[in-house]
Specification:
The protein is 33% helix and 21% strand. It is of the alpha+beta class and 338 residues long. The structure holds glycine. The site of glycine has 12 residues, from β8.
């Protein structure tokens, strides 16, 4: 009989059971194929399933795949999270991250990103223009400077000194969308789940038991020039505590910042809540701090030290990608408050 996992709430219990069944079937014929670095035990409150990687939206599938290439052979979570989100940053069809991102109201694409490792070290860039991989610049800030955050021209100067080429991030598609917006009513509050906002946040647990996370975005479409969202703000768009877990956010960054969302998710996990419950409680906090919550989307995903995951959001339509030894890179429909 299939066991119900008490740690998984109904929003992904079904996916867990289906995937566990698939996993058990495939382990009979293919257990030897699993890399020795992949540790997997029956899910129970004390089980550890690792490595594991989760990330926001369906662009999380290719990002997870790149991260998994590193994790499956015993690589470090910090390398995996950077490699994962770099895939999304380079994809010109994604209009919310990196190349092809929707611009601000002046037509400039400006990027925000941050990264955090198992030691609690972190790096961040904001309002960075003309650079394909803000996540790598953020990692260089973390590893090669005494600072946590560089913004604007200073971040660009730093990136150029580190050898990043300057490129045009505005694709014809995003330029055309911006031109259409210029001819419209020019609303700054973007459309839910379309422009509001499909950041990639990705967190990973490696086979050594260490956690890391990365978050990168072009921010809200048509934002005021100079606007920075939650994604490069440590504690808002991303937080990692190697004793507890990791969390990342997507959606309307202003609302996430008001609740210091990802720090709260991790602190709720520290208090004994599952990743799923911690995300649900944090969405309630966001709602309580944002009277306009019916007009916005905010979502959180979280990964525990034992490989357990969760996700929750305000509005329907958010999904996230999960890759573990027992779940081969699947998109999970997030539970939602509405
Ligand atoms: N969550 C991304 C942003 O608001 O910029």
């Amino acid at each position: 009989m299939q066991a119900i996992n008490p740690y998984f709430s109904d929003s992904h219990q079904f996916a867990y059971m289906t995937n566990r069944r698939k996993f058990l079937q495939s382990s009979v014929v293919g257990a030897a194929a699993l890399h020795a670095a992949c540790r997997s035990e029956a899910q129970s409150p004390t089980a550890i399933i690792r490595p594991a990687v989760i990330s926001t939206w369906n662009h999380g599938i290719p990002a997870n795949a790149a991260a998994w290439e590193i994790l499956k052979s015993g690589g470090k979570a910090i390398d995996a999270v950077e490699a994962g989100v770099r895939v999304t940053e380079s994809d010109p069809t994604g209009q919310s991250v990196g190349v092809g991102g929707r611009p601000d109201m002046n037509g400039n694409v400006t990027l925000d990103a941050c990264i955090m490792n198992e030691k609690g070290d972190c790096g961040s860039v904001a309002y960075l223009q003309n650079i394909e991989h803000p996540i790598t610049v953020a990692r260089q800030v973390m590893e090669e400077t005494p600072h946590v955050m560089l913004v604007g021209d200073g971040a660009l100067q730093f990136a150029l000194e580190k050898g990043h080429p300057e490129i045009n991030l505005l694709t014809e598609k995003s330029k055309a969308d911006w031109e259409a917006w210029m001819k419209s009513e020019r609303k700054v509050l973007p459309k839910i789940n379309v422009e509001n906002h499909d950041t990639i946040g990705l967190v990973a647990l490696d086979s050594h038991g260490d956690l890391s996370g990365a978050c990168t975005t072009s921010g809200a479409a048509w934002k005021l020039p100079g606007r920075v969202g939650d994604s490069p703000i440590i504690g808002a768009g991303l937080y990692v505590d190697n004793e507890v877990g990791a969390a990342t956010a997507t959606g309307w960054g202003e609302a996430v910042m008001r609740a210091v969302g990802c720090f709260l998710v991790v602190e709720l996990m520290r208090q004994g809540n599952t990743p799923q419950r911690a995300c649900e409680l944090t969405v309630e906090r966001v709602i309580s701090k944002n009277p306009d919550w019916r007009d916005i989307q905010v979502g959180f995903i979280a990964l525990g030290k034992n490989g357990e995951y969760g996700g929750y959001c305000i509005q329907p339509g958010f999904d996230y990608a999960v890759y573990r030894p027992d779940i081969e890179n699947q998109l999970i429909k997030s539970g939602s408050r509405v």
